Amino acid sequence: MAKVQKISKRLIAATALAAFAAFLGACTGSGSSSNSVGGVDPNETAATVNGKVIKMEDVDRAMKQQTQGQETRFSPLELAGARLQVLQSLIEQEVMYQKAEKEGTVPSDDDVTAEINKRKVDSKLSAEAFDKQTKQAGFDEASFRESIKKGLAIQKLVDKVTGKIEAPKDQEIQDFYNGNKDAFVKRKGVKLAAIVIDPSNSGEGDTTTDEQSSVLKANEVIGKLKTGQDFAQLARESSEDQSKFQGGDLGYLTEDDLKQAFGEQTAAGLMNPQLQIGGIVTARSQGKLFIIKLQERSDKDEALTLDSPGVRQQVADALVNNRKQLLTASYQAIAMNEAKIENYLAKKVVDNPNELSGARPAGAATPAAANTNTPEATPANTAANTNAAPANTTSGAKPAATPAATAARPAATRPAANAPATSPANK
Questions:
Q1: What is the pLDDT of residues 112-125, one digit of tens each?
Q2: What does 98-160 look like in DSSP terms, one character per residue?
Q3: Within this chain, do residues 293 and 322 fall inside the same structural domain, yes or no?
Q4: Of 63, 123, 127, 172, which residue is the least packed, with the fewest Cβ within 10 Å?
């Protein structure tokens, strides 16, 4: 239930959450130089952190990744604002990486190599395709390794800092549950998995680029299912959606979630008791074809207790993770205060406030907001997206396999394909 998320979030100060989200949600892998700044050229140097340079080329590369190339549609005013946001994330990343160096959490070369190999395997791309997409994201071999190194170092630092947090006592768990019983209700709904076929050309590895090819592929997948092939394995091999990395798992959706995601007719079919668990249905949503497997169904709302499977652990995890988020945000705030930061890009804006036009290039549509969780799994986007981040682990959303422009950040999360995030009670 969404209420569980809202209640647990009240345990954390809003400012701390914002700081932590900025650090984990927008940090970008960069090949920042370690050279001290002598004569600073503001056209080349965006900022320095304790004398270490963050170059404008690092900012522009991060911009390109986060906006998926749409930065060409931005007005000078919009572009300047977006650059400042990206730069702030790069500054926070560099501050934390320098702390990681002091705390001895920087990984060895062998660890970095192992992580790269893992990313290659997880991407399910050929070596050539992996290298191609890495280069398209603006990384050469050295900067790619550096981005992974920084991501692992920061994650190990976070783990070290938050390792002192103890598990909540039984009484605390009981008190939290007693104060929020209305949040622990498993709503009428279903747990689903899906194989998603996208008729649009959505990037590398996409084998369907039009309606005809998508229908043919869907029929081929359905044929394989009829012969008894494993659904999860087919999802990993054939789905053109983030959920393929979880074997097609979309999580638990309430009946209202179903209607919103797939429409009244499909929702009614999935809620129909005549459809057996394990049954397969097809649907269209947002222009995509869904081959859906019913994994679980609850025909009525069910009040959960601390003795219900998983509830006690979910409460404990929520309390621990909230403390981790607050502790990490506080640690980062102190590190930022201690660092000597020179933001030359911000100074440039202050010195020239009237030179930034709000007009977009001719014919440019309104650019989409920078997206840190894009749907395509590219090696650059998953470069050092470590899998043990404390952030957002209580949301019920699925781990993102493709946080764009976050090559050196800990993992973020995103909802499963076209499905609203659900609370721990709905797992």
A1: 999 999 988 887 77
A2: HHHHHHT-PPPHHHHHHHHHHHHHHHT--HHHHHHHHHHTT--HHHHHHHHHHHHHHHHHHHH
A3: no
A4: 127
